[in-house]
Amino acid sequence: MGWNRKVLRVNLTAGTCTPEPLNMAWANDYLGSRGLASKYLVEEIDPKVDPLSPDNKMIMSTGPLTGTMASTGGRYTVVTKGALTNAIACSNSGGFFGAEMKFAGWDMIIFEGRSPRPVYLYVENDKAELRDATQLWGKTCWETEAAIKKSHQDPLIRVSSIGAAGENQVLFACIVNDLHRAAGRSGVGAVMGSKNLKAVALRGTRGFSGIKDFPAFLAATTAAKKVLAENAVTGQGLPKYGTQVLMNVINEIGALPTRNHRDVQFEEAGRISAEAMHEKRPTDGRTHLVSNAACFGCTIACGRISRIDETHFSVRNSPQYWGASGGLEYEAAWALGAANGVGDLEALQYANLLCNEHGMDPISFGATVGAAMELYDLGILSSEQIGLDARFGSAEALCKLAEMTARGEGFGRELGQGSARMCAKYGRPELSMSVKSQEFPAYDSRGIQGMGLTYATSNRGACHLRSYTVASEVLGIPVKTDPLVTEGKAELVKAFQDATGVFDAAGICVFTSFAWTLADVQPQVQAACDGDWSMDKLNEVGERIWNLERQFNLAAGFTAADDDLPPRLKTEAARTGPAKGLVNGIDKMRPEYYKVRGWDANGVPEKATLERLGL
Amino acid sequence: MQKSLHIDPSKCTGCLQCEMACSYEHTGAINPSRSRIKVFDFEHEGRKVPYTCTQCADAWCMNACPVDAIVLDALTGAKVVKEANCVGCKVCTIACPFGTVNYLAEVGKVQKCDLCSGDPKCASACPTGAITYVDAEWTGLDRMRAWAARTNTAAVAA
Fold first, then answer.
1. How far is CA A186 from CA A80, A92, A174, A360, A417, in A?
2. Average pLDDT, integer, range B22-29
3. Which of A72, B73, B103, B119 has most Cβ atoms within 10 angstroms of its Cβ?
4. At residue B153, does pLDDT exceed 90?
5. For residue A7, which of A141, A85, A147, A105 has the smallest C-alpha distance?
6. Whole-angstrom distance, CA of residue A405 vs CA of residue A425
7. To the nearest whole angstrom, how far is the Cα of B149 from the nearest Cα of chain A?
């Protein structure tokens, strides 16, 4: 138990929906969600496939704790070959969509082929059918959700959809569920768009009754919730300030990438911080932040619900944006703000709303704008080419470029290719702040050395959610390490990578790991699932997931040369802050890491490693 | 002492732990669609509001039922549906001014909050204290205390 043991296979080419039993041998090796869906993908597609071709597949998957009382047990994962990265993509989202899949009786939905016309999948418990989406094509994620609920006369349907960005194959398009939660990274929305799949609408009234030992499960989840409630980060910091609590912290330690990583501290960080979201605006006397919100089952509730300033230039004439809606999280506030030198909170919120509405990853979008602003600053791009004055710090440029990218207008089309392709086109590939063509998130690896190794070796391209060593290097969780040194970071990164794989595979949120270790997760998994889920087993599952993803990427054509950082981070020292004078020591950490992983000097897993993990 | 569910929407984050607990207690499955307490999300106002039966003393549903399938639980004050008696006529769902009695097509009966025989699972599952189970005669006690605290009289020794 722990699973529904049921997979829905949707062949978009043939227009068929077929149930099949979940492969329980694989569930036993990979647990669920990220791990299990990756196993299915690896078994079913050629790693060299064009991500936007019908031969790529896209899998939406829950984990055994999704749709249960386990705190944060509402996550689902989209696994596919990424449009932005050409690497294995695995984007995780909260909200309520994942739990609904479980309540409808499914663990996983596999999409294959390409529909000849726009369709959406409608699932009501056992019933699954593809429906015409011609009328929905071109609509925003918000309009799509409302239209589907209206046409089925059912306000309780949960919807994941793509907006214009996914339809137009913006390479960092995301899949948005529940209005402002997203499977955000690596271009999973572009893959969905390439399949002519506009949305997935779920309604589950069967519920989930597959917990193996319910009294033990209730005891384990209750104890684990207590740990979250009593922890300063998950019990107080995140509910009050959201992830945005990091803005001032990371700026102070000199690791807030600013103006396309030219700087590591942003002089206007305070204006776009969590604290600023709590302050009353001079214009209307209201605070930007309205309330905090939880995803399904979450007892942390870090989500921000914000209300934009109606008098701001971006929305003055657009009342549709005046209501409360998904607000800025740390990553979005950084990417739309510091990465471009923009310190206008309301402009950031407007760009964030557009990302939610049209289905774009705000990290990659914001960072790509940052790269374009640098090209403009260097005189490589002119205002005629871009269509506006794109100087660093321009809130007007940020807002306009968000509109242009979402709608595929003018220079927005070039931004929609991501920074790696855009910078290469203009002869300056080194100015793309990315790994495997995916833009960095909000931590500068000169000020937090471990994050350099995290980014360089992440299987889905630059990403903080594969091994969040910030927890250790900055916050001292679970133990404090020095952010300015490379020593010990190889072991640290491996440990975080393997543990994170288990959190993801279980169907819970990685933010719980501010308070939980695997020892808090283990009793919950053990009580929910059949079989042995000891600590040793879970650690092995995490390592197995990592190596499986690695093998896919190697087969797709990636090599050790792709486990690297842009030259800026290796040659241009931080100019201010505690890391002043430092570059990232990736070349020192990489070989150490390969060794710790049981990989050879070329980053290929040794035979003994693969055998030990049963790969 | 009779107790009553007391809901403070300003504390609700919309996590649905209450809906999970309620549905598990009554159906043996984690199934929010069968929960007798529902959390409403007023998305564009940023407000979440849990809502369920208030257990009216002179209950419309109980008075309307033609087959006496809704009875008083003398211990808790809850109005409880006797499933064996319910014929699924839905008159109670029409009579209830608040919409908190609902018809289940699957079984042809109605369902409503029964206060879990005096240990409401929604209240114990709520992580923020938005749902509590308190003395029915003093549901306003916390609000009174808050206002009382705002008086400006100084403490004086006798």
1. 9, 11, 8, 10, 12
2. 97
3. A72
4. no
5. A105
6. 17
7. 24
Spell out the domains of chain B, with CATH numbers in brackets.
3-149 (3.30.70.20)
DSSP, collapsed to helix, strand or coil, labels residue A199 as strand
Model confidence over A518-540: pLDDT tens digits? 999 999 999 999 999 999 999 99
Q: What's the pLDDT score for residue B85?
A: 97
A residues 284-343 near B, CB within 8 Å?
A: 290-299, 301, 305-307, 323-325
pLDDT digits (tens, 9 = 90+) for A312-345: 999 999 999 999 999 999 999 999 999 999 999 9
CA distance A522 to A526: 6
- For residue A502, the tally of other CB atoms under 10 A from its CB is 28
CA distance A399 to A347: 6
- Name residue B41's beta-bridge partners: B48
Residue B14 at interface with chain A, using a CB cutoff of 8 Å: yes
Distance from the Cα of residue A298 to its chain's centroid? 18
- Residue A1 pLDDT > 80: no
Record the tokens describing residue B69, joined without a space.
Answer: 């399938």
What pLDDT is recorded for position B152? Answer: 86
Residue A546: which H helix or E strand, with range? helix A535-556
Tokens of A413: 């089309």
Do the beta carbons of residue B11 and residue B48 sit within 8 Å? no
What's the rounded Cα separation, in Å, for the pair B16 and B27? 16
- Which residues of chain A neighbour B43 with C-beta distances below 8 Å? 179, 323-325
Beta bridge partners of A89: A80
A267-272 — which CB contacts under 8 Å span 24+ positions? Answer: A267/A343, A268/A337, A268/A338, A268/A341, A268/A343, A269/A338, A269/A343, A271/A343, A271/A344, A271/A345, A272/A247, A272/A328, A272/A333, A272/A337, A272/A338, A272/A342, A272/A343, A272/A345, A272/A348
Which of B14, B29, B45 is closest, CB to CB, to A207?
B29
Q: Helix, strand or coil for residue A26?
A: helix
What is the number of alpha carbons within 13 Å of residue A123 lying toward its C-beta?
A: 33
Instruction: Say how far apart CA A82 and CA A558 lie, in whole Å.
Output: 13
SS3 of residue A346 by DSSP: helix
pLDDT band at A3; cut points 50, 70, 90: very high
- B156, pLDDT greater than 90: no
Q: Is the pLDDT at A396 greater than 80, yes or no?
A: yes
Q: How many CB atoms lie within 10 A of CB B44?
A: 15
CA distance A201 to A469: 36
Q: What pTM value is reported for the model?
A: 0.97
| Chain A nearest CA to B130, separation (Å) | 12
pLDDT of residue B125: 98
- Angstrom distance (rounded) from CA A49 to CA A66: 30
ipTM above 0.90, yes or no: yes
Q: What is the mean pLDDT of residues A426-438?
A: 98
Domains in chain A and their CATH numbers? 6-203 (3.60.9.10), 252-439 (1.10.569.10), 449-612 (1.10.599.10)
Is A363:A332 a contact under the CB 8 Å cutoff? yes
Q: Which of A209, A225, A297 sits opposite B28 (nearest CB)?
A: A209
DSSP A79-147: EEE-TTTSSEEEEEE-SSHHHHHHHTT-SEEEEES--SS-EEEEEETTEEEEEE-TTTTT--HHHHHHH
Structural tokens at position A148: 């589907």
Amino acid at A293: A
Provide the residue count of chain B. Answer: 158
CA distance A279 to B129: 26
Q: State the nearest Cα–Cα gap between B69 and chain A, in angstroms.
A: 25
Cross-strand pairs, A131: A120
Taking the Cβ of residue B145 and every Cβ of chain A, the question of whether any pair is shorter than 8 Å is answered with no
